[in-house]
Every structure is written in structure tokens, then in C-alpha cells.
Amino acid sequence: MQWRGYRDAIPFKIVAFTLFLFYVLSQSVYAGDISLTPAKLIIDMPEGYKKEPISVNITVKNNLAYDVDVRTKISNPPEFELTENHTFIPNLSWVKTTPSMFTIPAKGEVTFKVTVDIPDSEKQNCYNKSWEVWVSVSKIKGGFINVEPVTRLLIHTPPNPPSITEGIMKSLPLLAFLLTVFISIILAKIFIERKKKLYTYKNRYRNLQKPSYATERKSILYEDDIDKKIDQLLSRYNMRN
Amino acid sequence: MKKLQVLIVGILLIITFSAPIVIAADTATITITVTASGTVSISVSPTTWAMGTVSLGSYNATSSTYFTLSNDGDVRVDTQINASNSQNWNLVTGTPATDEFKIDTLGTIAITLTTSLQNFKQDLDPVTGNTYQFGLNFTMPTADTSGGVEQTITVTIKAAQG
């Protein structure tokens, strides 16, 4: 039984040794510590600037068997590495990463956000531009030699400021609406003015119809005169008869 | 009354003529293009170099194949290299003096490192040749005024899609 056990143990040891060797070999051809996806990001704005900042995602993967603390970095590329027809961004602070420091779990990945926010005051000077910014990730506690994978972020600003005709064409429905509102207000004003005029005329007419105090007084005097006259005539008539 | 009328008409005219610009800005669509499935991943092995005790004014070098730079991603990369100053010593490209040191790369690409990035291995292809071997030569300062304080120096290799 013991011999049988010993005989069984030999292939087990061989398998264990083979597995160990495989483990060692697989460790020696390990993938890069941290990898970055995508390698290149292009932001195109062919139809103009948007009010809110533009955000894109980058995923960083930890290929190691333990957690790694990393920091993101925004930098200008070396001049000799600039993509053709691209220049440096005027201000690196226009590009931000959130979060800028984080922990990637062992064999795990984390997606961080890259935000491009060109200030409104600068937009007028930033048409038809092609900028290149590098977004890299590095280990906070690295060794003597550190590697930093980089994502090339290419930002293409709008080709031209919006022309007035283009703007008018685009906003034709709103223009029509505003015009309708405008005409309605004018018509309403005209209508109200007319009504006011009519009311004034009517009032004037009413005022004309209404006897004034003087007229009233006159008419009273007049009536008294008539009464007196009638009385005179009656008395004359009576005297004659 | 007349003033009010003029004011209303004025406001409406401003709204009417400024609307196109405002609308143009609001309705603009932003196209974001992302290159497909590109992953940058590089590694250096080993990441440490046990230099041992090096006397002032002398140098210590690895073999020219001591470090292996590997492209483990799926895109061709260009690499750049630089080194940092230490707490008390400055990196120089000439012969180091007091509190100055120098690092040279050994191998087919022989450059003296600076604090700025310099071109290192170009076109490191994940398929046709994903590794590059190199060494380093560290030249010590002629004198140290820090009083023997341990100095931390980092060599950084950046890799971007080539």
C-alpha cells in the first residue's frame, strides 16, 4: 500500500513541478504592468462648440496580481512626437481627468473620465485648431524604472465660427415663431388702441348727450319762463273773456 | 406709452437677430471619434537595479542587455525616456561635478538622459518585434554635499501609439 502510494506520488510530483514551471514561465512573459485603452482618442467638433464640456473615457487595466495605486497625468507631447498638423493646446488646464488618483484592483480595471473644457472667452480664438495632448498613467510607487502608457488625445476644434446665414437657416422655425409673436403683439396693440379710441368716442358722445349744469340751469329757467308765459297768456285770455 | 412700444419692439428685434447665434451654439453636435481596440501596454524587466556601493567620481554600468522593454499591447509604439533629478543631485549631460550625476543608455540606442523626454526605441511592434534590450551607465558626482543622504532617481519610459 505504501509502495503504491509512493508510486502514485511520482507522477503527482511531476505534474506539480510542470505546473510550477508553467507558472514561473508565465510570470516571466507577463503583460505590461498597466495598459491603457484606447491608444488614440480623437475629438472632432465639425458643427461648432457645445456649451457643456466634452467628456471621454479611458480605461486603465492592472495586469499585476496585486492592487496598484496610480495617478493620471496630462502633458504636452515632446515636439518631435507631435502628430502631423497638430500643435500644443494653448492651456493644459483645459483638459482634466477625474479621478486623478485611484487604486486598480489586482487584474482589474478602472475607467476614468477625461474632460475637455475650453473657456467661453477663448472659444472665439480657437477655431480650426488641431491640438495634441497626452494622457498617461503611472504607478505612484514605482521602481527605479517606471513605464507610462500614453493615450494620444487629438482635439479638432470647429472649422469656422457659425455664419449668420447658416445660423438663420438653422433657426428658421424659431424665427418664424418669434415673428408670429411679434406680429401678434403688434396686432394686439392695434386692437387695444382701436378699442380705446372707440371707448373715448363713446364717452365723448355720452358726454355730449348728457346736459351740462349750465344747460340744465338754462332749461330750468326756460321752463320757468314758459310757465310764466303760459300763466300770462291764460290770464290775458281770461281777461278777454 | 410710446416709450414702452419702442422698448418692446427693440427687445423683440434683439431676440430675433441674436437667436441664430444662440441656436447655432445650442444645437451643435459633437462627433467623438475613438480609434478601435487600440491598447498601449509596455513593461520593463527588471524595474530595479541593485547598484551596490559606488564611490564618488566613478561609474557603474549594467550589461547592454540588462533591461528588456516589451510592447505588450496591440499597437505599435514609440517610446521616450527621461530621468529625474534626485533630492540633492542634478542630472547633467556633461561630466558630472559636485552634486551632479549622469545616466547613459547602453545598447543600440546610446543617449545621455535629461529631465526632458528624448526619443528612445521607435516602432516597437507588437507582432514583428516587441522587445528591446538596453543597459544603463550611472556616473556618480565628484563630491556630495548632502552628507551621504540616500538619493532617489527615477527613469521614466513613456509609450505612445506610433
Strand content of chain B: 25-35%
On the 0 to 100 scale, the average pLDDT of chain A is: 80
CATH topology of the largest domain in chain A: Immunoglobulin-like
Instruction: Count every beta strand of chain B, where a strand is a DSSP E run of 2 or more residues.
Output: 10
Would you tell me the structural class of the helices and strands of chain A? alpha+beta
CATH architecture of chain B: Sandwich
Q: Roughly how much helix do the residues of chain B carry, as a percent range? A: 10-25%
- Indicate the structural class of chain B: alpha+beta
Written as H for each helix and E for each strand, in order along the chain, the element string of chain B is: HEEEEEEEEEE
Strand content of chain A: 25-35%
In short:
With about 240 residues, chain A is α+β, with helices and mostly antiparallel strands.
What descriptors fit this protein?
heterodimer, A: alpha+beta, four-stranded antiparallel beta sheet, 27% strand, disordered N terminus, B: 162 residues, 1 helix, elongated
How would you characterize the overall build of this protein?
The complex is a heterodimer of chains A (241) and B (162). Chain A is an alpha+beta fold. Chain A folds into 3 domains: 1-30; 32-161, Immunoglobulin-like (Sandwich), CATH 2.60.40; 166-240. Chain A has 5 helices and 9 strands; from the N terminus they run αβββββββαββααα. In chain A, the strands form 2 sheets. Chain A has a 5-stranded mixed β-sheet with strand order 2-9-8-4-6, with no helix packed on it. The N and C termini of chain A lie far apart (179 Å). Chain B is α+β, with helices and mostly antiparallel strands and 162 residues long. Chain B has a single domain, classed as Sandwich (Immunoglobulin-like), CATH 2.60.40. Helices cover 15% and strands 32% of the residues of chain B. In chain B, strands 2, 3, 4, 6, 7 and 9 form a 6-stranded mixed β-sheet that branches. A 3-stranded antiparallel β-sheet of chain B has the order 8-5-10, with no helix packed on it. The termini of chain B are far apart. Chains A and B meet through strand 1, strand 2, strand 3, strand 8 and strand 9 of A and helix 1, strand 1, strand 2, strand 4 and strand 8 of B.
